[in-house]
Fold this protein.
Amino acid sequence: MANRLSQIATRTGDDGTTGLGDNTRVSKNHLRVMAMGDVDELNSNIGVLLAEPLPDEVRELLITIQHELFNLGGELCMPGYELLKLDAVLGLDEALAHFNANLPRLKEFILPAGTRSAAIAHVCRTVARRAERAVVTLNASEPINDALRHYLNRLSDLLFVLARVLNRANLDGLGGDDVYWHSERLKRQEAD
């Protein structure tokens, strides 16, 4: 494992390369670096979500997720090293079951809207999907731990569910329910 950074502006990346955790240098447009960047962006967006008013159990879960995403990014940074454990994926499955249990069935597709915290959760969900695509793309050229893919897939599902939970929590007084897409089918059903 590489040394921890004690200096941020090293200037070693000025040539368009970056160092991985195993001390190899790769181009900044390498598939591994792209996946690392998407995971970092996801973690940063979760940090923005954590700056919002949240139910305590959602806050605690998101803090745990941030640490797990750091492990996931670390694993991407160190080829052949395993940091993210299957328990992390199972934890997301448990959280999905817990938070989904009290939500009403969806009547239609929902829009990424509602309260500010719900909208930010939807942004996190879309970044999680992009990170998942980047990991899948990397895996097509280099073998990686399956848990990375599974984790990002479950996390995007969980963030969708949490957006619905946050709309109902209504901590900013601007939400209260899902924001449904008004399709022609829904319009016909409402007219009957």
User: Anything to note?
Assistant: Residues 26-76+87-94+108-190 form a domain with the Hypothetical Protein Ta1238; Chain: A; fold (CATH 1.20.1200.10).
